[in-house]
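lol forgot to send this yesterday, sorry. struct tokens for the thing we talked abt
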């Protein structure tokens, strides 16, 4: 045989089962069954697939109710930090999503503001619901007038939400029966006249925005009191066309005198506004305030004492971008008649029926474009010593009258 040629070895014809006797160079005959091997491999993979599929379906059924489609199941399951599962029904079920996320979280301010800035672009709500008012309390610590507020809120569950921002080292200890129980949000220190005060206000708004049922947002302090029964205040705010925040041009040293030219050209001195920090807002404007990354840095960098961010940021930003949506007045009454940098603080001796009636009946305002029969819904500043006389007079000014309008919105 020539060098480099190949020697072939005959094979025995196949048996009936498809096997053959095959011999290689220098080797004995060997029985090989390629078809049988393929069948065994196919069977092995088939059984493994059935076992894995059974385990997968059994595992998924622990997380999702019967009747869920495979597509929604596969899209919904998320893994958090590789060791804990998030049950995604709250994200895909509109009713669960509208109920909102827990206020007891460990999000940073940046994460919180980002999440709260999300807003539906489609009009309407896919389920029936009752709009709520978010009552946001900005306080150093305790709520000395809480018993009065408990009476105000009583019997109106489902129409309001409560959020309390305190000093971070203070724990609001309320009984389980209280409307304030577990309503303290993750807080940071806020100092009067400092940008941290506005940070706290935006933190309150962001937490309240996590509940999609909240339609109106009221900022209050521990010294505030309600002036009318809950149904009146509820209807007043839910049916209002505008948001209640003061935004006026003060040409004096405490208005334009606080303007910093370094804010131009974004903010001009002509657009500079002043107003009370105790605001009330519709949901769309609350979303805008937590979403703003254009105006807020200007105030943070250039509105420094004696420029007070909480008196200028909200009024200036909202009047520039959304002026027609503002009533340009507050619904919280304060008394500046005694002079000084702060409004008057009332004590127990000030509280009489005539005193409260005088505040309640101030009517120099417009409501939805018409002369208002009510101008102020709340009042401040009331010291802890006012609690007892206020509770005694509560039947005369907080008794429930009328009915609440529960129209779907």
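and heres what i got for the seq, position by position
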């Amino acid at each position: 045989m020539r060098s480099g040629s190949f020697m072939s070895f005959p094979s025995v014809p196949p048996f009936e089962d498809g096997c053959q006797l095959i011999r290689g160079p220098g080797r004995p005959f060997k029985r090989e069954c390629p078809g049988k091997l393929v069948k065994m491999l196919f069977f092995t993979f088939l059984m493994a697939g059935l076992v894995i599929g059974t385990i997968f379906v059994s595992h998924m059924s622990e997380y999702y109710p019967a009747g869920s489609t495979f597509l929604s199941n596969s899209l919904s399951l998320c893994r958090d930090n590789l060791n804990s599962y998030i049950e995604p029904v709250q994200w895909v079920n509109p009713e669960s999503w509208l109920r909102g996320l827990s206020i007891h979280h460990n999000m940073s301010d940046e994460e919180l503001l980002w999440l709260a800035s999300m807003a539906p672009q489609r009009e309407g709500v896919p389920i029936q619901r009752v709009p709520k008012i978010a009552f946001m309390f900005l306080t150093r610590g305790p709520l000395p007038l809480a018993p009065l507020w408990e009476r105000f809120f009583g019997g109106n569950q489902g129409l309001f939400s409560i959020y309390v921002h305190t000093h971070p080292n203070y724990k609001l200890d309320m009984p389980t029966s209280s409307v304030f129980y577990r309503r303290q949000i993750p807080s940071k220190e806020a100092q009067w006249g400092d940008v941290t005060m506005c940070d706290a206000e935006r933190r309150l708004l962001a937490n309240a925005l996590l509940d999609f049922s909240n339609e109106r947002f009221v900022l209050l302090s521990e010294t505030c009191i309600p002036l009318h029964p809950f149904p009146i205040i509820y209807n007043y705010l839910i049916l209002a066309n505008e948001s209640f925040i003061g935004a006026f041009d003060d040409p004096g040293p405490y208005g334009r005198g606080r303007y910093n030219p370094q804010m131009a050209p974004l903010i001009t001195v002509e657009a500079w506004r002043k107003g009370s920090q105790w605001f009330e807002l519709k949901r769309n404007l609350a979303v805008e305030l937590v979403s703003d990354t254009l105006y807020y840095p200007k105030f943070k960098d250039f509105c420094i004492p004696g420029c007070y961010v909480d008196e200028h940021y909200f009024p200036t930003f909202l009047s520039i971008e959304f002026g027609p949506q503002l009533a340009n007045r507050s619904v919280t009454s304060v008394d500046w008649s005694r002079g000084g940098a702060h409004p008057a603080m009332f004590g127990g001796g000030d509280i009489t029926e005539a005193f409260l009636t005088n505040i309640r009946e101030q009517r120099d305002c417009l409501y939805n474009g018409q002369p208002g029969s009510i101008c102020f819904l709340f009042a401040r500043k009331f010291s802890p010593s006012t609690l007892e006389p206020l509770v005694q007079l509560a039947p005369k000014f907080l008794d429930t009258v009328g009915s609440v309008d529960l129209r779907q919105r």
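The two ends are 98 Å apart (CA to CA). anyway ping me if u want another try
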